[in-house]
Amino acid sequence: MPELTDSAERITHPEKKASATRIFQINLRKFFPPNDEYATCMARLCILREDLALEAKGISEGPFDWLDGNGIPWRHNYFFRNFAKTVREIASALQTLNCTQEFQQALKKHYTLAEQKVFRDFCKKIQQSIQLITELRNSIGGHVQHKVIGQGLKSINFDWTGFWERPMHPRDKFDHTHHPFANDLVLTSLVAGDRPGNLPVRDVTEVLAIPGEMAELLDAIPHIDALFELYVVERHLL
């Protein structure tokens, strides 16, 4: 099976260019036949892999000129929120994949015991993070909930300020009106969170630690790449 370390290094250093790539033209019906649980799982994971890679680059790379019109922090904020939503979907997709008999047989056939352990450990890690991932998705990722925003507003003190950019000429409003203070509103929503009633609201220090916790789940990308290689090999698709 492909080594995960090479892919992980490319994520950590996105500016590193591939020495060479090979492009395959594939028959989608052959690769992803209908009414096929294993194929459906892999199709879903491939979509989510590309989403996650784009979101990771949106956070780590740049600047991106007009995309940063509301400031680099807002771009980071935007892609991080989508990142949380995508990771939640990946957790669900891996659960379904792990219940697929053909996949389990392929895993035991082609992965060494050590590689199997690395994959299962990652699945455990993402499941252990499910409460945080779901909270982020429900609070400010997949949804921007009225209730959560309202709770967040309660944490704003009278000294907290933000910025609003408003162009002088009406013709510039669409392209040049920005609300940088929205970053602060997202932060307050993270403090409040969509948390179970028995859990206290987070303080700002805890909120600022969340991206570091979520960054560990970027390992999903090399794992999905390896799982697709496994799928192709198992089904003799090339």
What does this structure look like?
The chain has 12 helices and no strands. The model is unreliable at 1-14 (pLDDT under 50). Helix 1 packs antiparallel against helix 12 and helix 4 crosses helix 7 (130-141). It has 238 residues and is mainly α.
Number of strands: 0
Shape: globular
Order of helices and strands: HHHHHHHHHHHH
Unreliably modeled segments = 1-14
Distance between the termini: 16 Å
**Which percent range fits the helix content?**
55-70%
Mean pLDDT: 85
What key phrases describe this protein's structure?
single chain; 238 residues; mainly alpha
Topology (elements, then pairings):
Layout: H1 4-12, H2 28-31, H3 37-60, H4 72-98, H5 101-110, H6 113-128, H7 130-141, H8 146-153, H9 173-176, H10 182-192, H11 204-215, H12 220-234
Helix pairs in contact: 1-12, 3-4, 3-12, 4-7, 8-10
Could you write a compact summary of the structure shown?
This protein is mostly helical and 238 residues long. Helices cover 64% and strands 0% of the residues. The longest helix is centred in the middle third of the chain and has 27 residues, at 72-98.
